[in-house]
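I'm stuck. Please check this protein.
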Amino acid sequence: MSLRYAVVLEPDDNNTILVTVPDLPEAITFGEDRDDAMIRAVDAIETALIARIAAREDIPSPKTTGATSVALPALSSAKVELYRLMRRQNVGKAELSRCLGVALPQIDRLLDLRHNSRLDALDRAFHALGHTMDLRIRKVA
């Protein structure tokens, strides 16, 4: 399941579209048109989440609903869910690296939304925390 965030698109004063994310006030961007704005919205959301992970802050589930929303890529969503699970279980990166028998930089990469991690590595991390990761494929509406 991909995380989906509501976005607000508003005409900006320089013929661009301003994008804000109610659930992540720090995620602000713009686009030349609606399509460009939606693409940039995903990047702004990921950037905000990366900053929250780096600052060891909680990442709450998206709460705002709206007519316009964007879904994070599945890999980014899985990484955010791993981070959230680690926080709920009070498991730090060092402890997870010991459980998995890997070096700490590998855990850093598992939590890095910009790193193209392997799904099996994420699955092993979830399993080490007593959870499983499921993959679901759906037809686009």
About this structure: The CA atoms of residues 69 and 116 lie 24 Å apart. The beta strands are 4-6, 8-11, 17-20, 28-31, 69-71.
